[in-house]
Amino acid sequence: MIDVFIGGDVFLGDNRLEEIAKKADPAVLFKGLLDKISKSDLSIANLESPILENGTALIKTGPVLKSTPQSLAILKNAGFDLLTLANNHILDYGEFGLSETLKTIEFESMQFVGAGLNKVQARKPFKIQIKSKTIGVINVAENEFSTFNNRRDYGANPIDLVDNYYDIQNFKKEVDFLFVIVHGGREHYNLPSPEFKKTLKFYADAGANAVVAHHTHCVSGFENYKGVPIFYGLGNFVFNNIGNNRPLWNIGLAVQFHISEDNQCSFDLLSFNQCKGENYIIEMHNKREKESFLDYINNINKIIQNDSLLRKKWVEYVENQEHAYLRHIFIKNSFVKKLVNRKILPENLFINENHKVLLSNLIRCETHREIILNIFSK
To answer: How far apart are CA 314 and CA 191, in angstroms?
Structure first.
């Protein structure tokens, strides 16, 4: 039997977490999970920030993250072997930040997958011989600020269904069991969109033996698709957010996979609290919390397995987000945007229906979208 441990998003750059991490004592931070991490044959986590002391931040929207090189030792000491880097923050400090990250991972004698200083390195899968089997990992991320593109060779390995298909097909010949780990989904939404569900099932059809996603900062559900376990979101593994009022932020899920000699796969769900209140450590759920968590997961799973209900939930969510997205697109002045948000100015003064139709076509049409992305990536 081969045990593979997979955790979600790790960010150690918060001041308090950084203090704990620099002491490099994993028993303090990982507490109840340390035994599972250290005793697994392969332990994997998503490194959600570049590792460097100082640098110039990338111009982007959203938070810019970094952690110090000293903080990485605690992951090594805990027993993590492999860090996935295909995520939306790995280029927060540009090519230099990525380069420093790769150097630090190498210094700590750890492995990485999912990003690189050129496209070949970024797309390169990871494989390792464990007992009688070769285990492989392919890591991809949604196309945000971090992925390589037509104008930039370095960065994270992007979701590109054509390239991903051929990578899975070719790499499948070299390994006995293949994990595809995906960084994607809508942040703070605890269900996969219908399209994201279709994408992860596509990876299973292409040849993955297990598919695992993270990025949304909240735990989603899972399903067994043609014998392939698909996890739609593990939530945060270690990721503090001071002042955060989202109750799902502090609940995490790790999965320990068990791969038998005949390549059958089972798994254990490991639920926990992380960075909750003043407590900056991982604490396994007690009996009551575990029961509550399993009820939550079962309810989520019922929605995921019902395509019409999943789409209904997605449409409701999109309708709730509609005005915020339209204001981001059509209203450039931040002061004017505040006036519209407070309903001092009417929204329809700035959002033109004809422009919405035009924009919809530019995004929907593959060739128009390709042109726009090339223009914007200059």
So the answer is: 8
Q: 73-85 burial string, b = 16+ CB within 10 Å, else e?
A: bbbbbbbbbbbbb
- Tell me: do 261 and 357 sit in the same domain: no
Structure confidence at residue 29 (pLDDT): 87
Q: In the listed set 306, 332, 347, which residue is the last one of a domain according to the structure?
A: 306
Instruction: Tally the domains of the chain.
Output: 2
As a whole number of angstroms, the distance between CA 316 and CA 139 comes to 31
Residues contacting 87, CB < 8 A, separation 6+:
9, 46, 47, 48, 114, 141, 146, 156, 183, 215
Q: Find the domain containing 366 and state its range.
A: 310-376
Alpha-carbon distance of 141 to 182, in angstroms, equals 6
Same domain? 331 vs 289: no
Q: How far is CA 112 from CA 81, 83, 101, 103, 311, in A?
A: 8, 5, 10, 11, 35
pLDDT tens sequence across 222-242: 999 999 999 999 999 998 875
The alpha carbon torsion through 74, 48, 215, 232 (nearest 10 deg) reads -40
pTM beyond 0.90: the answer is yes
Going by the DSSP 8-state scheme, the letter that residue 185 receives in this structure is S
Are the C-beta atoms of 12 and 29 separated by less than 8 Å? no
Final residue of a structural domain among 271, 289, 306: 306
